[in-house]
Each structure stands twice: as C-alpha cells, then as structure tokens.
Specification:
- It is a single chain.
- The protein is an alpha/beta fold.
- It has 2 domains: 122 residues, Response regulator (Rossmann fold), CATH 3.40.50.2300; 163 residues, Hypothetical protein af1432.
- The chain has 21 helices and 5 strands.
- Helix 7 packs across helix 11, helix 12 crosses helix 19 and helix 13 crosses helix 18.
- It is globular and about 65 Å long.
C-alpha cells in the first residue's frame, strides 16, 4: 500500500452527499486518508483529534455553516487549505465565505475536478516548505491595498456615471485588488471552466454589481494606512509592479499572452506584502541586510527565511485558484532555469521585465538568467527588450 500523502476532511450535513463523495473518490484511498464529518460540529471534533491538510466543506449547513466552520479553521488551523463545495447560488452566503475560502467548487463535482483541486493544493504545500510562512498566508483574509486605490474604487463604484472600464482601470493599478478579483473570477462558484488571466476580462465576467459589492466590503479588500515596517513601501511596490507589468506586456506579441504577462507582472511580488505583514521585524532586518551587503532581496530572503517572496506569492495565488501559467511565472521569476520544459513565454517576459525595471533595493541590481534564454531560444529578444525598458525609463524620468 502506498504511503498516504494527504489527510482530507469532507464536511456536509447530508449523509447521502458524503456517501457519494466516498464512492466518487474510492480510487484515492491508497493515496489519501479521507474523513467524512456530518456537520460543522463533528468537523471541529475531527480537526481537534488529528491534523488535516485540506478541508472541503458544504456552504449551507444547520448550526455551524460553511462560513463559520472555515472561519474557525482559519483561526485555529491556518495552514489547512479551505475549499467550499456547494450547489447553492446564494450571493450573500458567498460574500460571507469569500474571505476564508481558498477555492470554490460547485455541485455536482466530478472526481477529476475535485482531485485536481486537492492535488494542486498539495503540490503548493510541497513548494512552500516553511510551516511558519504557510501559517502566515493562512491567516490572511486578503492582501492589503493602498488606501487611495481603495477609496478611488469605492468612489467609482458609487458613481452611476462610471462603468466597467473605469473600474478596470482602477483595479489594474493595484496588485492586491487584481489578485483578489482573479481569485474570485477563477473560482468555479463564480466562473466557468476556462481560466481567466486578464483583468479586463475578469472585471467584465464578474459584472459591475458584484465588483461594487467587493469594493465596498472591507473584509475582502483590506487597506493599509501606513507601511508596516521601516524601509518597505507598499506604494513603491505597487509602482514597480505596474512598471514590470507594462514592460512584460510589451515584450509579448500575442495579445492573449500579453494580457497574461501583464497580470503576472502586476502580482509577481505579492509575496513581499505577505512576509512584510506577517514578519515585519524580520523583514526589516532582511531589507537592511540586502542594502548593506548589496545582495538581491530574494537571495537574502532565502538565506534568512528558507523561502523567497516568489514562492510565498505563488503559494498564495495557487490556493486562490489562479491560472497555473501565472503561478509558475511568479514562482520562478527569479530563477527561470529551475522550471522544466514547456511553454515559457510569460515567464521569460516577466523575468526580463523584473530585472530591467529599477530594483526594489536601490543600487542592488539582479542579473538576467542568460542560460534560460538560451535554452528556450529567446536570447535574441533581449536587445529589443532592453531598448523598450530604456525608453520606458526615459519617459518616466
């Protein structure tokens, strides 16, 4: 018998639903230890009895419903991945569970879709080896957004003369909001089977009413009044992310992939926000060490934390259900050679853009991974990309 790789807790108030899930996933018994709890109270008893990797819960249950259960799981067991499995199209209930659910799946759910969701979560747990960082990510309701951006979106949402294009323009200026919108639109509960990687498409798919609701709900789009640590600027990170996104988009000829590259650029450094919010004192030391030793930020992060903001960001985006092309690009944007064979266009554009914009630590510049560009046959693109970066820097000046 193969070694059990994951412990999965399934929660529903209907025994017949749990029996159906047990039959549906019968083939996974060799790989997963699966426990089936009837209702939220029994689920909490199981969680207190043994550790679990993933909780898959129904939304509507008597007593302790899905939102209450997952809120408790987030508080007590923050490293456990939280998946909602529901057949009810109740927007009010969905808004309650949004801050505490990592992924949404709809009933009826076939074995393949459920297996992929669980396995993807497990793979991302393996990617991020630090239990401390997993706990930090698990406790987050949402990434902080700079106040002026939040206020701009709120004001636009209240203005009857503003439309989707106005809201899209605001969302695209902020990596935290962009990430949350993509999480929501790519959840099976709100979206379809096709992954959406472009912000305009995501905003259009969600619709103005839902976007207004999200904009006016503080527990979804959190704000940050001031920088949590000395030397870390949320607005500076936002500006650099925008510059990287615009450059990455210009590096790609195919329009669809260009939008994906833009999105990847916009969210590629969200891991910095997670670490800064969760470990402010340690991150302040990391920033100081990077400046004094004149080494790149991700090198010092790896040395002191055992993980970099790239992996932290990829983990967060992954459990939120963003497209894998973006997750991979974020995870490997500092070390693209570590990615195996396969499509690498978005990663190449993002890695180059990240290197060619002004560095996050002044005077400490990263280097292009030329071996990667040689391997994927894209080294001849670099001279033109450098010119585009120089042009953009000149316009900004």
């Amino acid at each position: 018998m193969s070694e059990v790789q994951a412990r999965i807790l399934f929660v529903d108030d209907e025994v017949a639903i749990l029996d159906g899930l047990r039959d549906l996933l019968r083939k996974e018994r060799r790989r997963w230890e699966m426990v089936f709890a009837v209702g939220g109270a029994e689920a909490l008893e199981e969680l207190a009895r043994r550790p679990f990797d993933v909780v898959v819960s129904d939304m509507r249950m008597p007593g302790i419903d899905g939102a209450q259960l997952l809120t408790t799981v987030q508080a007590l067991y923050p490293s456990v991945a939280r998946i909602v499995l529901t057949g009810h199209a109740d927007r009010d209930a969905a808004m309650r569970v949004l801050p505490v659910a990592h992924q949404f799946l709809t009933k009826p759910c076939d074995a393949g879709a459920l297996r992929v969701a669980i396995e993807r979560t497990q793979a991302l747990h393996a990617l991020l080896a630090s239990q401390e960082i997993r706990d930090i990510v698990g406790r987050l309701h949402s990434l902080p957004s700079v106040p002026k951006t939040y206020l701009a979106l709120t004001e636009a949402a209240r203005d009857p003369n503003k439309g989707l294009s106005d809201l899209t323009a605001i969302v695209q200026r902020d990596p935290a909001m962009s990430t949350k919108v993509l999480q929501i639109v790519n959840s099976a509960y709100f979206g379809g089977v096709q992954r959406i990687a472009a912000i305009p498409q995501a905003v259009m798919h969600l619709g103005i009413e839902l976007l207004k609701g999200l904009a006016l709900t503080g527990n979804v789009f959190a704000t940050l009044g001031r920088s949590p640590i000395e030397g870390f600027s949320l607005e500076g990170l936002q500006q650099r992310s925008l510059e990287s996104a615009c450059l990455a988009k210009r590096f790609v000829d195919d329009p669809r992939q260009a939008e994906e590259a833009f999105t990847a650029g916009l969210v590629h450094d969200v891991g910095q926000i997670v670490i800064a919010m969760g470990l402010p004192k340690r991150y302040q030391e990391i920033l100081r060490e990077a400046r004094q030793s004149r080494r790149t930020l991700h090198v010092v992060e790896l040395e002191q934390l055992g993980v970099t903001h790239a992996e932290v960001g990829a983990y967060l985006l992954g459990v939120w259900g963003l497209p894998f092309s973006i997750i991979e690009s974020v995870a490997y944007h500092h070390r693209p050679s570590a990615l195996g064979d396969g499509p690498c266009g978005t990663l190449a554009a993002l890695h180059a853009a990240d290197v060619l914009v002004d560095p996050p630590v002044a005077g400490v510049e990263a280097e292009l991974d030329l071996a990667f560009f040689d391997r994927v046959g894209m080294r001849d693109h670099l001279p033109a990309w450098r010119r585009l970066a120089d042009e953009a820097r000149g316009r900004a000046a």
